[in-house]
Amino acid sequence: MSITDPPDLVAALPPLFGFTPSESVVGLALHGRPGRLRLGASVRIDLGRGPDDDAVLAAAVRDRLVPTGPDAVIVVVVSADPVSDDGRPPHAGLVDAVTDAFGQQRVRVEGAVWAERVVAGGPWRCYDPCDCSGTLPDPGGTRTAAEMTGLGRVTYGSREEVAASLAPDPAARSRRRRDLVDDAHRAAALDRELAGPAAVRRDLATVRRAAAEVGRGGVLTEEEVAALAAALSDKQVRDVCLGFAAEQDPEVDPVHAEELWRVLVRAVPAPEVAEPATLLAFASLDHGGGATLTTALDRAWTADPEHELSRLLQRVLALGNGPEHARRIAVEGAAETRRRVG
User: Record's InterPro entries (predicted)?
Assistant: First the structure.
């Protein structure tokens, strides 16, 4: 992805975050030397109600990116607000606040750009001192979009579309689905009591087969959904599945695993849905998290307010450690559990 061409940078935001941001401030961490910079962590935050919110937003962007060790950052503002009275793009005060916040940490702001909307032909303009301007290319035609499409990633038009894509199916709330999941729990509990680690291995084989089936475009039966809900309720099974996103399992395509979690988030009833929802949240860290991360965590918390793993992920991110740190914790835990169960 180009980080020197402002219009290409802005047009790459939808595939980067998984949805088209609007009324947002975006921070992008850069690593390396001038002329050889690469993109690192990213953060997107809703714009505030007015100038009084600028300092808070700037601190939030700084606190999210500084722990990742950037050599520089780029700031993008997406807003349909009018140009300021002084001729600068809207929210120039926020850009100044972000620049000051990073300056206190001796991290330079490499550039700052505004776009009215992230659409083909939409106007963009750099903030001082560059002040160049133009229109955006087609966001779907960027190199980043092509890379995400090649990986099977879907870019949604808004955060609302992301939430709708993960909303529970009516059958997930049905009496039949609840009864099937309860039956699967009883069968799994007996198997674990009698077989121990062998039962964990059988459950993992069930998950692997389901990921492959979904990856081929297959549809899971109600009985398969129930068996998977019971399997993932075993923490050892769930923890090994965390490693799928990091390609720790040669039998599982990470894209297929992520699609399986999406299917189960819609199909599994509460409270068991907290497990695939958290697995989906972790899988989304591989490509920035974005709206999928927050929506999946919301589903997990709503289904099970005491769910430990989703709370751990929330705490790690809240401390400003970033997706990379959270993903590393998950991968290390998955590898340890896999060694233990064989």
Answer: DUF4192
